[in-house]
Write a structure and sequence with these properties.
two-stranded antiparallel sheet, 2 strands, 6 helices, Four Helix Bundle (Hemerythrin (Met), subunit A), about 5% strand, mainly alpha, globular, about 60% helix
Length: about 170
């Protein structure tokens, strides 16, 4: 397995894991979904949306290096669980299209990231490999945050271990 395939597999893992969180959120009462938890983003749904936003926006930025832009799907600021599910599916398709384009030699490239206040106030160069790894870490960070918040309301998070992921991926292949 080459490095691109390894990174693609991590994206597939994150996509499958995010789907478990969407299903868990879909079982919660509406008041749990809209309650401000004082976390990185106010609600459970908004935290997961932010995580998907990060993945999708970085994939859009990276995609222009290897063909036409893979535009970020749209999602409302405070989505319903169904809107979040639709956004997740669209982001998954965007990721698949991206990994169909990228080759191992592309990982060593750098690209210009234009300023985007309030996140960063200056243009900067970023490595393709490092950006892809950042996207993976960002998703993991916010799922950890969701785990802690779900535990606070006595809900077991849908933690997906790697072995279970590989078994599920093998069954669907």
């Amino acid at each position: 397995m080459d490095e691109v395939e390894s990174i693609r597999k991590w994206f597939a893992y994150n996509t499958m894991a995010d789907g478990g969180y969407i299903e868990t959120l879909g079982k919660l009462p509406p008041e749990e979904l809209t309650r401000d938890r004082g976390a990185s983003y106010p609600t459970l749904v908004e935290i997961l949306k932010h995580s998907l936003d990060g993945t999708s926006s970085w994939i859009e930025r990276l995609s222009v290096l290897f063909g036409p832009a893979l535009r970020q799907p749209r999602c409302s600021e405070r989505p319903t669980v169904q809107e979040l599910r639709d956004y997740h599916e669209a982001t998954g398709r965007q990721i698949e299209q991206f990994f169909a384009r990228i080759r191992p030699e592309h990982l060593d490239r750098n690209f210009l990231v234009p300023k985007l206040p309030p996140w960063w106030d200056e243009d900067f160069e970023a490595p393709v490999r490092g950006t892809l790894l950042h996207i993976i870490e960002h998703a993991l960070q916010h799922r950890g945050e969701l785990n802690a918040l779900l535990w606070q309301i006595d809900v077991e998070p849908p933690i997906l271990d790697w072995v279970a992921f590989e078994e599920a991926a093998a069954k669907s292949a």
